[in-house]
Design goal:
The protein is mostly helical. The chain has a single domain, classed as MetI-like fold (Orthogonal Bundle), CATH 1.10.3720. Helices cover 72% and strands 1% of the residues. The chain has ten helices and two strands; from the N terminus they run E-E-H-H-H-H-H-H-H-H-H-H. A two-stranded antiparallel ribbon has the order 1-2. Strand 1 and strand 2 form a beta hairpin. It starts with a strand and ends with a helix.
């Protein structure tokens, strides 16, 4: 099996299968789930059966259905946050690299200021003050994770901006936007694509942690982090708490397997250039 012109190792194939299964679960949750996510369909802590494969939670809701709906909510919000972080981080990082020292110093100062605060604590403070609505959650975490993306984009763009073909484009009279779009961005894509996968994992885990602490995705919406919190009290007696935790772990592993392969391709390509 090949992707992007490169042969996929077994680990990357496993990662892609895990990602594909989660994407299908998120997109087609209403069709795949046997029950609505918030419906009480039995007694609390019902054991697994033919009607309820994973059993029932603390309110008597079907755990399998909530895991499927939770994939839609958790993965969807994580993707939106990662896209926002990359849009802001890449645009500002490239701007810092090509617009001169003044812009670079100002943007780097703001980035270092945000990085000086622990991410989870900063998110907890902001969400406690501003509320836990989904737009607030997306904006808060997106801005926080735009900073590491900014630092990577800035470093990569600065390395590319001093290369000969960029200087040649400047001598030809090409505009700044043309240079960024045609010279800098295509050559910066490999590390940025790998960073996108890693940043999605960090976002995904942070959303789950915030939901577990009660400041992430709020009930009655299904979310894997809040499901672990709701069912954790019965972990010694029922395996119900293990299912959402296993879903979080599996998706994280799958994305990392693919990211490791992308990083290996990038490293191999740099070695061939040298």
């Amino acid at each position: 099996m090949r992707l992007f012109g490169h042969k996929l190792p077994l680990s990357a194939q496993v990662g892609l299968v895990i990602i594909a299964v989660n994407v299908i679960a998120a997109v087609f949750a209403p069709l795949l789930a046997p029950y609505p996510e918030s419906d009480i369909v039995g007694s609390a802590w019902g054991v697994p059966s033919a009607e309820h494969w994973f059993g029932l939670d603390n309110l008597g809701r079907d755990v399998l259905s909530r895991i499927l709906y939770g994939a839609r909510m958790t993965i969807g919000i994580s993707v939106l946050i990662t896209l926002l972080a990359f849009f802001l981080g890449v645009v500002l990082g490239f701007a810092a690299a090509v617009l001169g020292r003044g812009v670079d110093v100002a943007l780097s100062f703001v980035a270092n200021l945000i990085l000086s605060m622990p991410t989870l604590i900063f998110a907890l403070v902001v969400l406690s003050v501003m509320g836990t609505s989904i737009p607030t959650l997306i904006l808060t975490v997106g801005l926080l994770y735009a900073v590491p993306v900014f630092r990577l984009a800035r470093a990569v763009a600065m390395n590319i901006a001093v290369l000969e073909y960029v200087e040649a484009a400047k001598l030809r009279g090409e505009g700044l936007w043309w240079i960024i779009r045609r010279e800098v961005l295509p050559n910066a894509l490999p590390p940025l694509v790998a960073e996108f996968g890693l940043r999605f994992c960090f976002t995904f885990l942070l959303i789950a942690a915030l939901s577990f602490l009660g400041l992430g995705i709020q009930p009655p919406n299904a979310d894997w982090g809040s499901m672990v919190k709701e069912t954790g009290q019965m972990i010694a007696l029922r395996p119900v708490a293990l299912y959402p935790a296993a879903a979080i772990a599996l998706l994280t592993i799958g994305v990392n397997l693919v990211v490791d392969w992308l990083l290996a391709i990038h490293s191999r390509g740099q070695g061939e250039e040298v």
